[in-house]
Amino acid sequence: MATAARKAPAKSKSRPDGKSAGLSAPKPVDFTKDEELDAYRRMLLIRRFEEKAGQLYGMGFIGGFCHLYIGQEAVVTGMKMALVDGDQMITAYRDHGHMLAMELSPRGVMAELTGRRGGLSRGKGGSMHMFSKEKHFYGGHGIVGAQVSLGTGLAFANRYRDNNNVTLTYFGDGAANQGQVYESFNMASLWKLPVIYIIENNRYAMGTSVSRSSAETDFSHRGASFKIPGIQVDGMDVRAVKAAGDLATEWCRAGKGPLILEMQTYRYRGHSMSDPAKYRSKEEVQKMRSERDPIEQVKARLLEKKWADEDELKTIDKEVRDIVADAAEFAQNDAEPDPSELWTDIVL
Amino acid sequence: MPIEILMPALSPTMEEGNVSKWLKNEGDKVAAGDVIAEIETDKATMEVEAVDEGTLAKIVVPAGTEGVKVNAVIAVLAVDGEDIDKAGEGIGEEPVKAETATTEPAKAEAAAPAKSEAAAPVAAAPRTEIAADPDIPAGTEMVSTTVREALRDAMAEEMRRDGDVFVMGEEVAEYQGAYKITQGLLQEFGPRRVVDTPITEHGFAGVGVGAAMAGLKPIVEFMTFNFAMQAIDQIINSAAKTLYMSGGQMGAPIVFRGPNGAAARVAAQHSQCYAAWYSHIPGLKVVMPYTATDAKGLLKAAIRDPNPVIFLENEILYGQSFDVPKMDDFVLPIGKARIHKSGKDVTIVSFGIGMTYAVKAEAELRGMGIDAEIVDLRTVRPLDFDTIIASVRKTNRLVVVEEGFPQSSVGDHIANQVSQRAFDFLDAPVITIAGKDVPMPYAANLEKLALPNVGEVVEAVKAVTYRG
């Protein structure tokens, strides 16, 4: 059992959970030196990028809604490490981390945040709506839960083409209460679609805690009525995520149908930039940051195993900061879209 | 008294059917609940059970008879020792065959038990000759085809042509389509490409859009567009907007199709026209054909179109026949209206089932010496204003007819645009005719009142042409 970020509720034995399907959360497998360094670099890029985005929002360069991923970096990073080329990803509006994990250009993402012509959607999508066919990233969706049906459709296409790719469909503990999630579960299970439903349980649906919004707070059980097994994963430990990702992708590629991974994670910032997060205590946030931080965990292991010293880590940090600074510089100075863009890309 | 067994109505829109088989012979004993015959409707072959006990005295309508009107006597049952020879006497001498089907539906008239005052009496109108479509080469062989068959043929042809095209929806496969539109597709293309879904509109609309984003070309059938309300978020927020939001990188080549608008006697939640709703949305194309020819050519175009297309059909039109060109690959342009009938005194613009009122009114008006031009929009978005305005410049008068609600209707938008673009050519205010501003009632007389009628169209034309 992965270390839960909170006390898991008592489980009823009658429910067809992951165990009854012969599944349990795999133990985190130790990373190699290269894997640790790779994870460290990837997670740090997301952390620094999001910090910069928050800063640019405060300066007025980024408008509208901006939902930061800080604290949850291990979830997308570990899952990405389990993918092969052609596997797809789709998520909701807290999506910058997912895009960076899928190796979309930091310049393109940041310039989209600032609404410039060099943005991934040429300035017409914004924070919540970015896509990359080339990188198999299908958005970026602003309607809570809609991406779950869409992701199921991506998996349908993979099954239709019999191409052995899997689709990672991300959603939060809040979206897990939307009806179309269960409509999708039903079809995915019925048709044995190769889709991994990743529920990022960061414990708050905007400002409503899981216990106030969900009758069943063990999200790994949410597929029980559809015979979809699920497992709870320590979403703060990138190794645990990667191990679960390996298990899940293998499960899907073997034609066994969908799987649910509940990633127990935590967002450090508010729901969006305008959220003061008064619904939780500062101590709760501080405790997660100091005890469970996904990046600090990797850093500690790297230092302990002497796979890197402080100077080497600082070098990595510098390289990452340079990438982010370059993206921010580009995003602030790139031109706004040409007014003619108002009328393009409506229909083909 | 012998009991008359009548031709049953087996669907909301059924007016006639075929007696395909008798399972009892004259002289056979019949118990209540026994299957006595098979009746073929335009949707399915149904078994007819006896309600009463007795002896089948006379089969009035033999097996194999087509076009038997609802409520015609098809057999006579003798009860309690009645003489079976006498029981059938004098029955079955009246004609039971429906009149030859025309392109004009008799739906409201047939469904209503009593004449309503609001309904203008419609004489047996001379049939309107459909003007030649410039998209059909002169001399092309024409084959009488129902709208239903035309839609099925369009899908089958496109599925043969492109392996990425598939159809999904409720009852599209094993059941052969709730309205038989997908009849035979499962047999030809198999369950991989003809996919029965659970009853889960929001979910399968999203699955369809996701598959389209991945490059497949789904045809998503809604059993009716009323049920698509459950799915409207995926249609608008996901299908229509993704191309724009992605800066042109990714869109959704998908067709959402199914019956739209009022059928007959299915009341408020099942009787609503969504033409105006979807026409509001940039990123969608909205097609609403009237003839079988347009249904075929435009559905093929919709399937090939790289954008999300809303394809609004009508249950009442499904069974109507039109001459469809026999061509290997008949594709019509989306966004182009068709002059259904050329005229000089007034322009009547309509689309979909609204055309049935326009066509009947035109015939009546012709009798009054008014030469109306009928423009069938065929596509509601993008609207072909060039054709509308060219017609208005010629006739100087415009009446728009549709079944949807009046506020913010398609007609309202046309009236607004014509007043801006062709004001100087108008000799009278534009009149828009729509359904009444009420939820659709169930009662036959009220339903008839809620829908537009031919009399309203005739009166509107008389008003804009300043005739008595």
TrEMBL record, chain A:
CDD domains this protein is in? Answer: TPP_E1_PDC_ADC_BCADC
Cofactors (names) = thiamine diphosphate
Keyword annotations for this protein, in alphabetical order, are:
Oxidoreductase, Pyruvate, Thiamine pyrophosphate
- Under which EC number(s) is this enzyme classified? 1.2.4.1
State the Gene Ontology BP annotations: pyruvate decarboxylation to acetyl-CoA
**Which catalysed reactions does the entry list for this protein?**
N(6)-[(R)-lipoyl]-L-lysyl-[protein] + pyruvate + H(+) = N(6)-[(R)-S(8)-acetyldihydrolipoyl]-L-lysyl-[protein] + CO2
**Subunit comment:** Heterodimer of an alpha and a beta chain.
Protein name (record)? Pyruvate dehydrogenase E1 component subunit alpha
Which species is listed as the source?
A: Mesorhizobium tianshanense
Q: What is the lineage of its organism?
A: Bacteria, Pseudomonadati, Pseudomonadota, Alphaproteobacteria, Hyphomicrobiales
Q: What is the gene called?
A: pdhA
TrEMBL record, chain B:
Domain named Lipoyl-binding: residues: 2-78
The answer to whether the entry has keyword Oxidoreductase is yes
An example Pfam family from this entry, by short name, is Biotin_lipoyl
Looking up InterPro entries in the UniProt record yields: 2-oxoA_DH_lipoyl-BS (IPR003016), Biotin_lipoyl (IPR000089), PDHB_mito-type (IPR027110), Single_hybrid_motif (IPR011053), THDP-binding (IPR029061), Transketo_C/PFOR_II (IPR009014), Transketolase-like_Pyr-bd (IPR005475), Transketolase_C (IPR033248)
Provide any one GO MF term from the record: pyruvate dehydrogenase (acetyl-transferring) activity
As its record notes, the protein acts as a catalyst of: N(6)-[(R)-lipoyl]-L-lysyl-[protein] + pyruvate + H(+) = N(6)-[(R)-S(8)-acetyldihydrolipoyl]-L-lysyl-[protein] + CO2
Domain of life, source organism: Bacteria
Q: Does the keyword Oxidoreductase apply?
A: yes
What is the documented function of this protein? The pyruvate dehydrogenase complex catalyzes the overall conversion of pyruvate to acetyl-CoA and CO(2). It contains multiple copies of three enzymatic components: pyruvate dehydrogenase (E1), dihydrolipoamide acetyltransferase (E2) and lipoamide dehydrogenase (E3). The pyruvate dehydrogenase complex catalyzes the overall conversion of pyruvate to acetyl-CoA and CO2.
Q: Record's PANTHER family?
A: DEHYDROGENASE RELATED, PYRUVATE DEHYDROGENASE E1 COMPONENT SUBUNIT BETA, MITOCHONDRIAL
Q: Which organism is it from?
A: Mesorhizobium tianshanense
Tell me the subunit arrangement. Heterodimer of an alpha and a beta chain.
* Bias kind Low complexity: ranges: 98-126
Q: Tell me the classification of the organism that encodes this protein.
A: Bacteria, Pseudomonadati, Pseudomonadota, Alphaproteobacteria, Hyphomicrobiales
Region: Disordered; residue ranges are 86-126
Question: What are the UniProt keywords, alphabetically?
Answer: Lipoyl, Oxidoreductase, Pyruvate, Thiamine pyrophosphate
The prosthetic group or cofactor this protein requires is: thiamine diphosphate; (R)-lipoate
Q: What is its EC number?
A: 1.2.4.1
Uppermost EC category: oxidoreductase
Q: Which GO terms describe its biological process?
A: pyruvate decarboxylation to acetyl-CoA
Any idea what this protein is called? Pyruvate dehydrogenase E1 component subunit beta
